[in-house]
Amino acid sequence: MRKHATTLFILIVILAFAACAGRQKNILETNEPQVKLRSMQSRVFDITDHNQLLRIIIATFQDLGFVIDDAEESLGTVSGTKLSGYALRMTVSIRPRGTHQMIVRSSLQYNLQTIEDPETYQYFFSTLSKALFLEAQPID
Known about the structure:
The structure is a single chain. This protein has two domains: 30 residues; 100 residues, Alpha-D-Glucose-1,6-Bisphosphate, Chain A, domain 4. It is built from four helices and six strands. The chain is an alpha+beta fold. Strands 1, 2, 3, 4, 5 and 6 form a six-stranded antiparallel beta sheet that branches. Strand 4 and strand 5 form a beta hairpin. The protein is 50% helix and 29% strand. The model has no long low-confidence stretch (mean pLDDT 81).
């Protein structure tokens, strides 16, 4: 009886490891739609000041009607929620690209579902570009 229990235990452990290995393979796979989505979500801007870019992103969030949930200067992330009959959540991260540029990547979720509509991202980046342009202009 003890011999059968040991054999059964070993069989269960082997099956558990096999199941985990199969899942991890799927997690690491990339596919074309993910790359396309990432390209919609990312833009490069000619700015070097990390803090200034974060401030402009926060102002853009507020201009678009988002409430800031979290802003992490050291991580370069800003998250906000827009509640207007629906729950829209946006997270934006920035990181340097070379010495004179920053990459801005945004992610939008509606009810925990990632938004894949390119026009939504284009609107955000268009608004952000205008804010960056206005920030760069001298005030008389």
